Amino acid sequence: MNETQLSEIYAQRSSRLTEALARYRLDALALNPGPTLTYLTGLNFHLMERPVVALFTPDKPPVIVHPELEKAKIEALPFPATTFPYGEDPTEWPAAFRRATQYAGVKASRVGVEPTRMRLLEFHYLKEAAPEADFVFAEEALALLRACKDETEIANMRRAVQIAQQALRATLSIIQPGVSEREIAAELSLQLLRAGSDAELAFQPIVSGGPNSANPHAVPGERRLQNGDLLVIDWGAVYHGYVSDLTRTFAIGKVEAEYQRIADVVEQANAAGRAAARPGVACQEVDHAAREVITNAGYGEYFIHRTGHGIGMEGHEAPYIRQGNPQPLEPGMAFTVEPGIYLPGRGGVRIEDNVVITAGGAETLSDLPRDLQILPL
Amino acid sequence: MNETQLSEIYAQRSSRLTEALARYRLDALALNPGPTLTYLTGLNFHLMERPVVALFTPDKPPVIVHPELEKAKIEALPFPATTFPYGEDPTEWPAAFRRATQYAGVKASRVGVEPTRMRLLEFHYLKEAAPEADFVFAEEALALLRACKDETEIANMRRAVQIAQQALRATLSIIQPGVSEREIAAELSLQLLRAGSDAELAFQPIVSGGPNSANPHAVPGERRLQNGDLLVIDWGAVYHGYVSDLTRTFAIGKVEAEYQRIADVVEQANAAGRAAARPGVACQEVDHAAREVITNAGYGEYFIHRTGHGIGMEGHEAPYIRQGNPQPLEPGMAFTVEPGIYLPGRGGVRIEDNVVITAGGAETLSDLPRDLQILPL
Fold first, then answer.
1. Which residues does chain B have within 8 Å of residue A219's beta carbon, measured at their own beta carbons?
2. Chain B residues close to A128, C-beta within 8 Å
């Protein structure tokens, strides 16, 4: 993309932000580094011990407080910004924040902040610099801003899914009894990079075998696969900053009949969830469609999490596909459908796909087989 | 390590925490997921939209508020803990936090929090649950807790350095004019995993060539190397959760004389910084030793950052090797020495090593050549 196209994208996003601020009666938005800042500016920083904050208001270019040594990044922005750099001595930092909030005019304003992103560090400097401002959790305003993806974003997500699928296929050949979870996770991470993933993965692959597969968020460990195990692999790639997040479950050799049974139920639940997804349907209805299949099969109490979560620049973002969420789906919304059944101490099955709402329904971006395949191949 | 050894490690760390709380007159510590929580419990969570908080007090086992679906991780802890799980519906979460803070007895206490880690999300639930508590920034108490590494920790860091060095050596063969920064970064990430790094890197390699090398925190881009470029590579591995962080600078073919000159100055500054490091010396003296070499060579204004930062479970942690930091070095403290000279619009040089303070001096963990090597080899 050339600089003109980039400035156009950021101008569009900036005007969508201005609308969102107006709708939620916010005078300004204060962001620290994270996906929303990247979405609005392209800026990318690690969260470190030095605070970085950008202030967005409807009538001025963004105002950015940042360490002097990040100057080059800020100067490369394809749009104007007003910057307040500070040096290495933390006693200088409050003054930079005071000048920035004064310049941005956020003194006695309603200022939106991101509760899942902003740390007490940045908030402390902001609050000291603008003690009369009213800081408001703005997750709802911001969720809507990023939830509906444009075509470039969807193309990136589609590519992130393809990269993930290619990496898993390349990893299957090493999976057999005696191989450890950690070895499989390392090989899969390597294959993700080889297949073209951005170097910084959104999350480390989950590879959990045997009893560990009954823990949805297990960390890959030293346990070695055994015949009769279920094996859950939950992994994803990142492409131009956009994430994929898939799960497939495998049988190591012959498994007990109930494992095949729960794999069939979860496959049906996954299909039912995806089939329910279309514009106007509430998130909770997609959850219900998947959950009903599992409940009717008698495993309701073993489906211990929501059916899915939004996906985009973050591995988890709005919309959340859970009971009690009335948010209607809109074209461009992207999310996971990932029902599971977890039998404590024995094993679990989860099947996860990535779905994008289209004008007339939904597109599933992932197409790896969903039935319980037996490994080694 | 077996379970008994693990419980001993956590018991030791817990009693060091109790001392630190007493020294800083804190009644409790509230942590969200991050390195300090991992240090004290071994627990590892991504920061997500669901809040996880652990409360530590001198007289009770840790109290943990967590999503139901993380139960298996908590049950696997090698020590007792009292848990307050909650379900998928966010309206349940405040009650879980109220019960946890009541049980922990932190109602009207001084409760330490980590400003660089705790988000407004967790803080919001904590404050609602214990409105009379006085939340205090505890970075100083916690920095001391983790800054002095034990032998197991240092062994992990030594291995993380070896893995990083092996990965860089394996990457050098692809570096030549025409190769892009992004391609080198991808190959280096892949080689890090192949050499045995944990899959989740602490940071994405910085690979910056030509004018980009004048930006200390550049993000690898599409620019292709040209003859006459300086090339800065800043990378690290992770081993058992412990980080290495190294930088070397290369010349692509023949470079102008001033580039060789600044490379020599930075190499001397790096050596001077490392030579100054020993127990009892203040952080600012190590900074001064490195900075003086660069200033005396006439490049002081182009060394635009501090000389280094602590390193361990995080890529950046205490002690900070900067002007104005009187903190004396102690055996077990580990940090980077990474002076640099950055000529805007032209190019930069940085040379970074990892150092651990010993009883009698300091050990440099890294030993790759530091002089300006010419590539392709």
1. 44, 73
2. none
List the structure tokens of A90.
């933390």
Determine the average pLDDT of the residues in A318-342: 96
What b/e readout covers A92-118, taking b as 16+ CB neighbours within 10 angstroms? ebeebbbbbbeebbbeebbbbbbbbbb
User: Of A50, A217, A247, A291, which to mutate for an interface test with B (greatest number of B Cβ within 10 Å)?
Assistant: A217
pTM summary value: 0.83
- The domain total for chain B is 2
User: A218-243 pLDDT, tens per residue?
Assistant: 889 899 999 999 999 999 999 999 99
Question: Does the distance separating the beta carbons of A113 and B115 come in below 8 Å?
Answer: no
User: Cβ contacts (< 8 Å) between A127 and chain B: which residues?
Assistant: none
B252 and B333 share a domain?
Answer: yes
Q: Are residues A167 and A101 in the same domain?
A: no
Q: Examine the domain organization and report whether A133 and A164 are in the same domain.
A: no
CB B20 within 8 A of CB B112: no
Q: What is the mean pLDDT of chain A?
A: 95
Residue B349: helix, strand or coil by DSSP?
strand
Rounded to whole angstroms, the Cα distance separating A141 from B180 reads 38
Q: For B322, which of A44, A88, A217 is closest by C-beta distance?
A: A88
Q: A322, B193: Cβ pair inside 8 Å?
A: no
Report how far residue A27's alpha carbon sits from residue A153's, in angstroms, rounded to the nearest whole number.
28
When scoring A3, A68, A74, A200 by the number of chain B Cβ atoms within 10 A, the one with the most, hence best to mutate, is A200
Considering the domain architecture, whether residues B49 and B12 belong to the same structural domain is answered as yes
What's the average model confidence in pLDDT over A48-77? 92
Provide mean pLDDT across the span A4-25. Answer: 92
**Contact check, Cβ <8 Å, A200/B199:** no
Token pair 């006695």: residue: A108
- Where in the sequence is the domain holding A325, given as residue range(s)? 151-375
C-alpha A236, offset from chain centre: 10
Give how far the C-alpha of residue A36 lies from the chain's centroid of Cα atoms, to the nearest Å.
12
ipTM of this predicted structure = 0.82
Q: What number of other Cβ atoms are within 10 A of residue B12's Cβ?
A: 11
Which CATH number characterizes residue B41's domain? 3.40.350.10
Selected for mutation to probe chain A from B3, B89, B200, B223 (highest A CB count within 10 Å) is B200
Residues from chain B contacting residue A315 (CB–CB below 8 Å):
46
Residue pLDDT, tens place only, B125-155 = 999 999 999 999 998 888 878 999 999 999 9
Inter-chain CB proximity A88 and B305 less than 8 Å: yes
**Average pLDDT for B26-42:** 95
* pLDDT > 80? residue A1: no
Report the b/e string of A297-322 with b at 16+ CB within 10 A: bebeebbbbbbbbbbbbbbbbbbbbb
